[in-house]
Write a structure and sequence with these properties.
Elements: H1 2-30, H2 33-41, H3 45-100, H4 120-123, H5 126-135, E1 146-154, E2 157-163, H6 170-175, H7 177-184, E3 191-195, E4 205-211, E5 237-242, E6 247-250, E7 257-260, H8 267-279, E8 285-290, E9 306-309, H9 313-338, H10 352-355, E10 365-370, H11 373-376, E11 381-384, E12 387-390, H12 391-405, E13 411-417, H13 427-430, E14 435-438, H14 444-451, E15 472-476, E16 490-494, H15 499-516, H16 534-540, H17 557-564, E17 575-577, H18 578-585, H19 589-598, E18 604-610, E19 613-621, H20 622-634
Parallel strand pairs: 7-13, 7-14, 8-9, 8-10, 10-13
Antiparallel strand pairs: 1-2, 2-4, 3-4, 5-6, 5-16, 11-12, 14-15, 15-16, 17-19, 18-19
Helix pairs in contact: 1-3, 5-7, 9-12, 9-16
């Protein structure tokens, strides 16, 4: 009954809304609104104004003629067929207006103000994709895309390959991926943009994949190593999956690994995955140094050749002794490989056969550091040869040596830190770490410290990762991965190991070593480092008497060293203002800054005393200048100032 009583009111309301909708549609039509919008987007309204005005006047005339004709027909129907025809026409019009004005989708008005969420099938429509590229300013208004492969649904998302207009680069699409994701109305974590390289690819060909949902949500994937009875350390270790659920294997032989993140983002888990591959190889040797001091690495005691867990002074000294042993081991291996014939050792590098031959005593050795900053920050003064330094700097020197010369001798360095800043990880160490993995960090500067300079400008910034994405990071590999040999970097969600699975892997690794007879060091109850001549180690590190003369140093580094003299030694000045250097050397500040930057010395801001207060000025840390000198002496930077390996 209530419904029947309300029907006339609902009919009148629907007719009113329908009449309003009809008037709006007529107004858009008569004003040529669709054509006007297209012209405005093309920024050619001034050129087409006369044409739009003429079309508008024409549609006004059509409206007038139609109104006169309709009125005439109604009058004729009224005269010929009596009032019944008139009222029938009015009724039909009211019904049509009521249908047009009915409520939709449960909204309070006729239609919602905004459309619902777009489906990915619609998003990947070629024309919509062209519009998205234009909105993101990746192509011009008059430019378009050329379809290479049609949109297909694969791997939980839509993929498409397109060619950009001439002179447009795929690198710019990757760099501005967030803008393209906004234009496509998807979260940037759902969008994968890759340059197509190799055969069938070029600088302007882009592969796009848009996930149906957040590809990093849901439970983590278990590591395949949980089900592996053993593993070959020469094989890439299963590390995780990318957004398209493709398995990513991480090569570790011939390289080194740096993992950086803020706390509780999955840093230790990432290092555990790398270590698990070595643990399950009975012929691999592990040095495990845990600066956290918790139980995360306690299970590795069962397999570690050397094991340190803690952050006190005795632990730092034990780490030092272990590294001294490793530096001497690298020297010994190179000496022994030099005496082998070309068939046994063809390239002065370790081979799988050499690493598994007990008689050669050259097993693949992984040096695992968790919370490495604990040891690098140790301020204890030590004397190395005739040079005074800190224990932390000495450890950094040995790690840099191992990362630089160790891979060819079968020594792999894996470092993890929750403080990835330039003060904690010195440039002389960062520059020789080949593979980088950055989980979420605080800002783009920390991301670049881990991944490399200017990686954020290439579209790779770990500070943009979501806090909810535990174990998700940006991997910059030093070798080929399953996701592509030419990938600069890729976002990976690491595999997961429960504590029980981690302990089971360590138990399995110990059993494999007991069967093979390769259990040694700490795990075998022989926790004593072998005697090493520290003078030999100091010589290998160039840590003996250092000449701070400007001889064979490129300019302006030589002039800076000559000006600072003994103040450059550790324990001397920590910071020197740029103005002091440019005034003393009588050089142009901009040219001086560029030349020092090419040598790896970046200016920073620091507070210096001035009168009764302090003033913040630009200048250089003497530690960075010492690093540059050391790199020139070691040959990483030529005496002409060119960086031999491009790291500076």
């Amino acid at each position: 009954m209530t419904w029947l009583l309300r029907s006339p009111l609902r009919l009148a309301s629907a007719v009113g809304r329908g009449l309003l909708a009809a008037l709006r549609a007529w107004r858009r039509w008569v004003r040529v609104q669709d054509y006007r919008d297209a012209i405005e987007q093309a920024e050619k309204l001034a050129e087409k104004f006369v044409e739009i005005r003429a079309l508008t006047l024409y549609r006004w005339r059509v409206t007038g003629i139609t109104a006169v004709a309709a009125t005439f027909l109604l009058l004729m129907a009224h005269v010929i067929a009596a009032p019944l025809a008139m009222w029938g026409a009015v009724g039909a019009s009211l019904i049509a207006l009521a249908v047009a004005g009915r409520r939709k989708e449960g909204a309070t008005g006729r239609t919602p103000a905004l459309g619902g969420p777009r489906t990915l099938a619609w998003t990947m429509d070629p024309q919509v994709l062209v519009d998205a590229f234009r909105d993101a300013k990746l192509i011009g208004r008059d430019e378009s895309l050329r379809l290479v492969e049609r949109a297909t649904h694969t791997g939980g998302g839509w993929s498409i390959t397109v060619d950009l207009p001439a002179t447009r680069k795929a690198a710019d699409v990757i760099k501005h991926r967030d803008a393209l994701a906004s234009a496509l109305a998807v979260d940037e974590v759902q969008l994968v943009a890759e340059r197509v390289r190799g055969r069938g690819g070029h600088a302007g060909r882009v592969f796009l994949w848009v996930a149906d949902v957040d590809p990093y949500s849901g439970p983590p994937f278990s590591s395949p190593l949980v089900r592996a009875e053993s593993w070959d350390a020469w094989r890439p270790v299963p590390f995780g999956r990318d957004a398209r659920r493709r398995k990513v294997d991480l090569p570790l032989v011939w390289t080194s690994l740096l993992v950086g993140a803020i706390p509780r983002q999955g840093k230790t888990m990432a290092v555990r995955l790398a270590a698990a591959g070595f643990i399950l190889d009975a012929f691999a040797r592990l040095y495990v140094f845990d600066g956290k001091g918790g139980k995360d690495w306690r299970a590795a005691e069962a397999v570690a050749h050397r094991f340190v867990c803690g952050d006190d002074q005795a632990d730092a000294e034990a780490v030092r002794d272990g590294l001294v042993e490793l530096v001497a081991e690298v020297q010994s291996r190179y000496a022994r490989m030099a005496e082998l014939d070309d068939e046994t050792c063809p390239e002065s590098k370790i081979t799988p056969q050499l690493s598994r031959d007990p008689a050669q005593r050259m097993p693949i050795t992984a040096v695992i550091f968790d919370e490495v900053q604990v040891f690098l920050d140790n301020p204890t003064k030590v004397a190395i040869g005739e040079r005074g330094t800190t224990l932390g700097e000495y450890i950094a020197d040995m790690l840099a040596y191992l990362a630089r010369k160790g891979p060819a001798a079968g020594i792999i360095v894996v470092l993890a830190t929750q403080r990835p800043d330039s003060q904690t990880i010195p440039s002389r160490l960062r520059s020789v770490l080949g593979t980088r993995f950055a989980l979420r960090v605080m800002d783009w500067r920390d991301s670049n410290i881990v991944l490399g300079d200017q990686m954020n400008t290439r579209g790779y910034d770990a500070s943009t990762l979501l806090p909810s994405h535990k174990g998700v990071g940006i991997l910059r590999p030093d070798g080929e991965t399953d996701a592509g040999a030419d990938a600069v970097a890729l976002t990976v969600r690491t595999f997961y190991l429960t504590n029980a699975e981690w302990r089971a892997i360590c138990v399995r690794g110990r059993l494999l070593r007991e069967i093979a007879g390769t259990l040694s060091g700490y795990a075998a109850g022989e926790d004593t480092t072998r005697a090493v001549d520290s003078a030999d180690v100091a010589g290998a590190l160039s840590a003996g008497p250092v000449s701070w003369s400007a001889e064979r140093l490129p300019e302006p580094l030589g002039a800076v060293v000559e000006f600072l003299g003994e103040e450059l030694r550790p324990g001397g000045r920590r910071f020197v203002p740029t103005a002091e250097l440019t005034d003393a050397l009588d050089v142009e500040p901009s040219v001086f800054a560029r030349q020092m930057g090419e040598l790896g010395c970046r200016p920073t801001r620091h507070y210096v005393p001035e009168g009764d207060g302090v003033r913040r000025v630009r200048g250089y840390l003497t530690a960075e200048i010492r690093d540059a000198v050391a790199r020139v002496r070691s040959g990483e930077i030529s005496s002409t100032g060119d960086d031999a390996d491009g790291a500076a």
